[in-house]
Amino acid sequence: MSKEEENFQKNDNFKLTMIPGSFVKMMRTCILWQFIRFMVLNIKMLVVVSKSH
Amino acid sequence: MARLVVLGGGVSGHTAATFAAKWLGKEHEVVVVTPNSKWNWIPSNIWVGVGQMKKEEVVFELAPVYKKAGITYKQAKAISLNPEGSAKSNTPFVTIQYTQKGRVGESEDLEYDYLINATGPKLNFDATPGLGDGNGQMGNNTVSVCTAEHAVHASSELQKCIEKMKKGERQKFLVGTGHGTCTCQGAAFEYIFNIEHELKKAGVRDMADIKWISNESFLGDFGMGGLHMKVAGYVVSSKLFAESIYAERNVEWIIGAHTSKVESGKIEYELLDGTKGEESFDFAMLLPPFSGVGLKAYAPDGSDITEKIFAANGFMKVDAKYDAGDYENWKASDWPRTYQNPTYKNLFAVGIAFAPPHLMSKPMQSPNGTAINPTPPRTGMPSGIIGKAVAHSICDLILKGKDAHLHDASMAEMGAACVASAGKGLFTGTAAAMTVYPVVPDYEKYPGTGRDTDYTFGEVGLAGHWIKHILHHMFIYKAKLKPGWALIPE
Into which CATH architecture does domain B3-123+290-400 fall? Predict the structure, then answer.
């Protein structure tokens, strides 16, 4: 059992959801990938802002 | 010369007043009446509440900013409205009471041509026994992050718990809503994960039990009836998104809960299925429900006409459809567009101060008849956009005449960005960044989810965290009216 799967057994509610694995967690703090996501999120948010005014 | 009076200097009131002053120039007068001497960027109170930011970093003095903008500033609270004037004069006025040092308790009748009610909410701690002190203030049993002062106190209590854990004493943290009709679940959501992050940083996470308690019928409701977003090729509910975040961080939850009583170290609650329970805690941050600030309204003969202007919850009636009926009949078009009071056309309400037509979440109650459902959020980005639109309308009414077109800002046609951080460090913190478009679901325009899933999204990572930092600095820069402030969007 990988470490990230341990929480499934800690609570009945946890069993019915999804828990990210090591790759997803790594990408969340990968500077290069997050810089790309930063640009994408900013563009999307600017579109939402422009549609809202 | 016309006079616009803005009651309240929060996000919506400050936005409305500053844009109105810019557009109206010196020919007309803009007056801001607010009981606080300082402006507070409330979203960053979360970081103050875990000791990662000082109070001084989230507040600033209003007086010099308003002086620079040519706005008349009165540190006072509004008591009552006379929208048709008095027996002596038919000019409408608002009665204010000063809170400014040296003038405390002094009253003034302030005449107006147009008035924006942007008072925000009353933090109704006393709605839950033990959550308040019985005098309208927060009690001693829990903490709050609703104001900068509350957040400083919360941080100090949190540090005490961390010290106890370092000495080997296990601690239980309870965070969420202190009543069945609370809103702003997002703030509590952010706070619980900042606590979790700080406990990890302090090396005491394994000594802590962290639990969420909320009036949402499912995790990820956020008072908006939840949302659907595109993730990895799927369109998924925010329920799955939120539950995943809690499970990953080992944070348990109680949902569909009305906190009915708070005592030292213990709460009592009632669930949607009617069962009742108790939960103990060593540290609890429970949000209070909101209500209107209690403004009264009087006719020229002195008779009380409060019900004509304000809804039962104390928020001001605007151009919303208040008789939409049951949940099945609710439509996006029920939501207000111009925020003009239907009776008095020179009265407007923005931000939390306007009365929403109904909930966004599905209304629910326990078999005992206790309402347990989140009330609609009207804070942050929408309140800024609404404030600006209303300022625009009033400026047009003043400059172009009473037949001028009013500007629209329906929450069913605007989006909102919500960035919930978990930690503050630039490379150690992460955040759940969410954008929803539109805020109020429109099932006629977007059948199925009620929203545009191209612009309704959520993800966890450093990127959202960086955005949160930028928003903090950008909005404080804008609120201080520094060069180019008007170019920064709400």
Answer: 3-Layer(bba) Sandwich (3.50)
